[in-house]
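Appendix B. One record, verbatim.
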Amino acid sequence: MKIVNQLKNLHTLFFEFMRYCAVGGIAFICDYSILYVLTEFIGVYYLISTFAGFTVGILINYILSQKWVFKNVKIHGFRPFFTFLIIGIVGLGITEICMWLGVEAANMNYMVIKVLTTAIVLLWNYTARKTLIFSTLLINKQIEHSLD
C-alpha cells in the first residue's frame, strides 16, 4: 500500500510540474517577446529589457500558478506573496547575471542566452516555490482541517 501511495504522489508531482512548465512557457513567451521588442525595436538596453520581460512573466506565473498549478492551495496574506516575490527576485538575479555573463563575457547572442537561462531559473523557481510556499501552505491547510 505504501508503494501505491508513493506512485500516486509521484504521478501527482509529475503532472504538477508539467502544469508548471506550461505556465512557465506562457510566461516565457511574454517575457521573451517583451525582451525582443524592447531591445530590437525600441532600442532599450538588453538588461533593462530583460528586467521588464521578467517582471511581466513573474506576474503571469503568479496568477496562473495560483489558478492552475498549485490549485489545492491558495496564497492568502502578505507573507506567502512576499516569499513568492523574493523567489522571483532571486530568479531575476540569476537571469541578469547569466545574461550579462553570456553576452559580455562569452559574446553570445542575448536571445540565445535567455533561453538557456530560463531553463535554470525554471528549476530554481519551481523547487523554491513548491518547498517554501505551496508545501508549507498545504501542510497548514491539512493541520487546520484536522483541528476541525
